[in-house]
Amino acid sequence: MAKHKRPDSLTALQRAIGTRISWARELVMPNQSECARLLGVDASTLNKIERGDRAPSVFLIAALSNRLRVSTDFLLKGVLNGRTDEELALRLAALHPELVLQRQDMAPSTDRNMSSDTPDPPKRPDEEIH
């Protein structure tokens, strides 16, 4: 038994992740046992994760993201990314209006080192570089 009780915020997060996994799985493959088999986990393990009784590993999150065609952002934070699988994202958003749908092409870029769809405008010769 653990020496310290898990904070309620982490328990709530674990439940929310399980709920989102369940929502996405039900749209892609309604049979929970079949999904567990394809992921290489026991059906009872997937059931506990979806109920929020067990935290999924980072490896299972990656496998679920790939298998269910949703971003890890959706599974972990509840933020849908339209480019990951636009059809699934729209179906999930229609069934669960509490989800947030973000379009990558409209989101401002926060990291200038990452490539984007639109390049920075060229510098004019009279502009100073600081």
TrEMBL record:
<dbReference type="Pfam" id="PF01381">
    <property type="entry name" value="HTH_3"/>
</dbReference>
<feature type="compositionally biased region" description="Basic and acidic residues">
    <location>
        <begin position="120"/>
        <end position="130"/>
    </location>
</feature>
<protein>
    <submittedName>
        <fullName>Helix-turn-helix transcriptional regulator</fullName>
    </submittedName>
</protein>
<feature type="domain" description="HTH cro/C1-type">
    <location>
        <begin position="32"/>
        <end position="75"/>
    </location>
</feature>
<dbReference type="InterPro" id="IPR010982">
    <property type="entry name" value="Lambda_DNA-bd_dom_sf"/>
</dbReference>
<feature type="region of interest" description="Disordered">
    <location>
        <begin position="101"/>
        <end position="130"/>
    </location>
</feature>
<dbReference type="InterPro" id="IPR001387">
    <property type="entry name" value="Cro/C1-type_HTH"/>
</dbReference>
